[in-house]
Amino acid sequence: MPKKNFLLFILIITVILHSSVTSAQEVKERAMVVYSKKNKSLSKAKTFAAFVDFGTSLFMRQDPAYPDLSECNPSLDLDISYGYFINSYFYIGPGAGIRAYFGENFTMFPIFGELRGCWKWTFIYGKGGFSLSTSGNNDRGGAYASIGLGVNFISKTKYKLFLSMGYEFQDHRRKDTSVLRKEILTGKNGIAIRIGTQF
Fold first, then answer.
1. Which of 14, 168, 183, 184 counts the most CB atoms within 10 A of its CB?
2. Is residue 77 packed enough to be buried (19+ CB in 10 Å), middle (13-18) or exposed (0-12)?
3. d(CA 24, CA 26)
4. Structure confidence by residue, pLDDT tens digits, 60-76
């Protein structure tokens, strides 16, 4: 084979091998990117998390027939829940809280299940359960529910800071200590404003 043709043959083989190696490296790099993205998305899912919410509830309902027995003062609230992200978007878990009402001689302790739907820096939540009262025979708790939406101020770190607003219902029954001795339903419906963290 002439030297010129031999050199041309070597050059062609070199170009083909170089192209093959480059293509193989690009395929490997793309595969690694897909794998890392998949692992990253999986790392966000199926993980345990805790939420702590602190704020107030501004209640609006009052029984006009019993204004002295159905106060709707604002409350100082604290909720804690610990649960599980079933995927990257949905969280479910049990929780408990405290409702300390200003100007009233009782405190409520809601026990609830919570569901959250999270999308980037926004989320919605729903809570439902039952509340217990600390005042004994004069006040009695009942059904509890809350639903609302929120915004994450810090969402790219392990710890998240958020603000939420929603509607809250707290069943409450109070005994009339007058001659009638009847039980009065004074459900507390209002706006719940919270600041909290996820970790």
1. 168
2. buried
3. 5
4. 655 555 555 556 678 89
Q: Is the dihedral of CA 32, 34, 36, 39 positive or negative?
A: negative
Residue 34: φ, ψ to 5°: -60, -40
Give the separation between CA 140 and CA 175, rounded to whole angstroms: 9
Q: pTM of the entire structure?
A: 0.71
Structure tokens given for 144: 């509890």
Query: Do residues 119 and 162 touch, judged by C-beta distance below 8 A?
Result: no
Q: What is the CA radius of gyration of the chain?
A: 30
Q: Where are the alpha helices (DSSP H) in the chain?
A: 3-44
Q: What angle do CA 91, 157, 51 make, to 5 degrees?
A: 35
Whether the Cβ atoms of residue 77 and residue 194 lie closer than 8 Å to each other? yes
C-alpha 117/C-alpha 123 separation (Å) is 5
* Tens of pLDDT, residues 94-130: 999 999 888 777 788 999 999 999 988 899 999 999 9
Q: Choose among 123, 124, 127: nearest CA to 113.
A: 127
d(CA 99, CA 96): 10
Quote the Cα angle for 61-125-81, to 5°: 100
